[in-house]
Amino acid sequence: MNEVVVLTPERILEVTEDVLRRYGLAKATVVDVARALDVSHGSVYRHFPSKASLREAVAKRWLDRLSAPLLKIAEASGPAPARLEKWLRTMFSIKHKRLGDDPEMFATYLALAREACKSVNCHKDCLVDQIALILSDGVKQGAFEVADVKVTARAIFDATSRFHHPAHAEEWNEPSAPARIDALLALLLKGLETPRKR
Amino acid sequence: MNEVVVLTPERILEVTEDVLRRYGLAKATVVDVARALDVSHGSVYRHFPSKASLREAVAKRWLDRLSAPLLKIAEASGPAPARLEKWLRTMFSIKHKRLGDDPEMFATYLALAREACKSVNCHKDCLVDQIALILSDGVKQGAFEVADVKVTARAIFDATSRFHHPAHAEEWNEPSAPARIDALLALLLKGLETPRKR
């Protein structure tokens, strides 16, 4: 019984992820992807004109899944300080969980980050924009005092790198990590606060 | 004309640094060090009982040279906020300069950091202690409000990782780096400040 499966970009990306998990970024080829799909590599190239474009697309898909729950927090209502803390803690825990659940794709992501791949850069910018959105709300609410929302959002992203940048992944399970995260977040939130009126 | 050179630990470490620069951490052996010194490897082992102990010692020597100018700033007098900012900027510039001037030893240091070598851990602790010293002064001066000086010192060390941890070295020469450092330091200093009385 032959079933005709339509070759969609989504189907190609799904299978590419599996292939990357199995072979790793360095070894996986478009031919491997085509073989896993049981199609010619020409069929894959029809959707993704190069190995690089396929890589970009698969990274984007993986990263979009990662940032979707964060966008919900950024766009929610409620007091900005609590929202910022929740957003940062959720980002840390999503990344930590990915590292545990999907180490092969995590390594692939790290390699793509090192190549300064476009999807990874967009992903970072998009996360900084989400922080900026929360900061703007905080300023409107009178809770935050921030001169330049975009610049400060980037500073918060930079300041928390130790707990979200894959280069530091080995430290995330250290026993001292939770207390260090608490101290860091307290310091950053205090730095954003509008000075208390007396 | 033969000159008798006494084989001191300092002389061994000096030559080991050269050997590491030439061959890299993975390939350099105690035999290479002995050959460069024109002594038997037994003579080296008399001072450093293992390759690991020699490695530790050479890392310690390199790192001590790096942290000496920082200690001077930490132990100086004057207003703590300016001193903390100067200390952090000096740490960044020392590390950036080392990366430019001595990339081979920098790579060795990164490899040792990944192995969680004792000297590198001590070095980190020692830097955090220096930050803590400045924070204590700031609390005494009434400039900083800090609940736990040691914990907050570690938070500042973590928060600035992007600009001193060798894993991020590739970003240090990006055009955006100076402005990002300014924004980060402003945020951290504001987070330490005693709330303004009105």
From TrEMBL, chains A, B:
SUPFAM superfamilies: Homeodomain-like, Tetracyclin repressor-like, C-terminal domain. Gene3D superfamilies: Tetracycline Repressor, domain 2 (1.10.357.10). Residues 6-66 form the HTH tetR-type domain. Residues 29-48 bind DNA. Coiled coil: none annotated. Pfam families: TetR_C_27 (PF17935), TetR_N (PF00440). Keywords: DNA-binding, Transcription, Transcription regulation. InterPro entries: DNA-bd_HTH_TetR-type_CS, Homeodomain-like_sf, HTH-type_TetR-like_transc_reg, HTH_TetR, Tet_transcr_reg_TetR-rel_C_sf, TetR_C_27. It comes from the Bacteria. This is AcrR family transcriptional regulator. It comes from Bradyrhizobium algeriense.
